[in-house]
Amino acid sequence: MKTVPNHPARGAAHRKPIDKLAIVAFIGAFLFAFATIVGALITADYSTFRQEISALASQEAPHPVVMIIGFFGLSLALSATGAALWKEMPIRSGRVGAIFVLLAGFGVGIAGAAREDCEPAGLSGAAAACRAREETNSVSASHVLHNLVSLAAFLLAIAACFTLARAINRLGNRRLTFIARMVGLTSILLFAFIASGIFENFSGLVQRIFLLLTFGWLMVLPKLIRRHRSQSRRQQWLPQPTASRERKGGPTLEEQEVEGVAGGG
Length: 265
Hints:
The chain is an all-alpha fold. The chain has helices at 7-42, 64-88, 92-113, 125-135, 141-171, 174-196, 203-236, 253-264. It has one domain (15-123, 137-226). The two termini are 41 Å apart.
C-alpha cells in the first residue's frame, strides 16, 4: 500500500518562523500607531490633519522620544515583513519585492534617528519659515538626511507593491494580483499629493492614509500569500473523481441513463 506523505505536519513546521515574524511585525506596527496617537495628544497645537508625523520627532517637538520609538517600531515591522515575504515567495520577483520592503524598513529607521530641524508641511507661519530655511540651505544635515531617506522609503514601498503584484500573478491568484496593483496605483496618487502639496492644509491626513494603505498592505501580504499557497496545496492533494462505480455514491445519473438505454436495446 502506498503511503501518503504527512504534508500537514510539514506545513505546520513551515508556518512557525512566519508566525513569529508576523508577531514581530504586529508589535512594531502597534508601537508606531501608538506613538503617532500619543505623540499628537501630548504635543500642544499639533494638528493631525495639517502636520506630518515627522514633526512629532523634530528638534522643535517637546516629546520627540515618543515618535522616535514609533519610527523604530515601524522599521522593525517592515523588516519582519520583508523577511516573511522572502520566505513565502521564493521566486525572483518575490525576492526583489522583499528586498525593497527590507530597504524601506532600514530607511524608516534612519529617518527616526535623523530628526528634522522643523516641520515644513502645512500653511502655518512656522511651516513657511521652515520651507524658507530649506530653500536657503539653512537646515542641518540631519534634516536633509531625514527628508531623503523618507522619500526613498516611500518610493521603495510603492515599488514593492508592483513587484510583489507580479510575483502574486505568477502564483495564479488573479484577485490578489488586482488588489496589489490597485494598492500600488493608489499609493502613487497619494504620494503625488504629498510631494506636490496640492492638499497642503491636509498633508498630515494624506500622509497617514498613504502609510496605512501602502505599509499596511505590505504587512498583511505574507499572510494572504501563505493562505493562497496553503489552499493550492490542499487542492493538489484532493482525490480526483473517477468513472469507477467503486467510488462513494455509486454511478452517476448520466451513467444510469446509459445503462438503461443499453438494457432496453
